[in-house]
Amino acid sequence: MLHFNFTNVFDLAAAALGACALLAVLLLSMSVRRWRTRCVAVESTLAAMRRELEVMASISLRTGRRVKRMEHEYSGVADRIESVELRGPPQRFDQAIDFARRGADPGRLTQQFGLSRVEADLVTRLHGRKKTA
Fold it and tell me: Is the pTM of this model over 0.70?
């Protein structure tokens, strides 16, 4: 008959417990290794995203500057369009040309037809009477 003594039972239990502990440590070590790999990948992705965000911020800043510059450059366009629309139909230029051909000066063209001083000067130069010396 087998004779069990407590020392053998405790030795066997201790060996089983040690094997389980060793297995747990091994599995935990593998899990930690996977988590470290995952953390490195996440940190790498985060760094790449930061670089992309910096590039996008730079592009956004440059685009904003361009938009402001364009707004500044073309801020008077609406006023000029409104001014042209208030002048009336294009026949006014035809009438101004006729008046210039008859000798009207730029001041009169500006006053009578609502042309700007530059426009009246141009109409007078192109279509006005030629001065003889």
Answer: no
